[in-house]
Amino acid sequence: MPTHVVIGAGPVGSAVARLLAASGERVRVITRGGSGPDLPGVERVAADATDADRLSGLTAGAATVFHCAMPPYDRWPELFPPLSEAVLAAAASAGARYLLLGNVYGYGPVDGPLTEDLPLAAVTRKGRVRAAMWREALAAHEAGRVLAAEVRGSDYLGRGAGSLFNLTVAPAVLAGEPAAYPADLDAPHAWTYTGDAAATLVAVARAGEGAFGRAWHVPSASDLPARELTARLAGVSGAPAPRLRAMPEEELERLGATDSVIAELPEMAYLYRRPLEVDAGAAERELGVGATPLERVLEETAAGHREAAAR
Question: Are 82 and 116 spatial neighbours (Cβ–Cβ below 8 Å)?
């Protein structure tokens, strides 16, 4: 039985490993510290994924390589290129299919729903990094070096999700505390469940060659504005009515003066201060994937915060 290699054990990478293992497939999860799901069929390996020789040895004979790793948010331009180059090269050397977990940064500001055929016209540093990663993978695909595809999600919800909302608003609301969010609180916004991102990655990996050489959008769990999403989260968790306010740009910039991660947020403000809708019709029709019901997503999100608070 061939082995699937998952680079990164965040919420999406771990969910990919669990899905594959649940189907009886062998999985090797590679992270710097050797973390990942502790399950039958899942081998956890500690390795630096930018070490091309080491990574090539660990991916030899693999059927699929899932690139789900992400460097610290404030170091993308420095760390993402060598990481992605090494993972792509390892997949090509192994003759494996290459699945890149991406996002919607590469499109830049767009009026109307995002579709996969839109040009990559990023206007931010992080958006240009993401666009370059896919262009490199697509060039390798078109040159016949590897079968490559990208799966793009929006802001994540779910246990341990690394989105701004889940890291800042959700814990405050669940604790009955006031929260501030740098967004138009009443603008529609696409929210991606980490489990749905994993399911879409696995669906592409199991599809025919025609599913490669292109990008796919993850079906959104919701397009609710942040204000309504916050109220729904409080409702399913039994928390008090939320006290949420819109954080002005000036306040965000002041916070960023002493926090290198927050300092990266203003350039992405266009994603939060205007409607963001993601069209995932192609994935729904051609891959047969769909969104998990929002109530289940929010219940898991709340459970994750309760577990973290209890530790």
Answer: no
Q: Evaluate whether residue 226 is within a structural domain.
A: no
* 191 contacts 222 by C-beta, under 8 angstroms: yes
Q: Structurally, how many domains does the chain consist of? A: 1
Confidence of residue 311 (pLDDT cuts 50, 70, 90): confident
Are residues 99 and 151 in contact, defined by beta-carbon separation less than 8 angstroms? yes
CATH number where 68 lies: 3.40.50.720
Show the domain range for 55.
3-157+191-221+277-292
Count CB-CB contacts under 10 A for residue 249: 12
**Mean of pLDDT values over 13-22:** 98
Output the pTM of the full model. 0.97
pLDDT of residue 1 exceeding 70: no
In our burial notation (b when 16+ CB lie closer than 10 A, e otherwise), range 81-109 reads bebbebbbbbbbbbebbbbbbbbbbbbbe
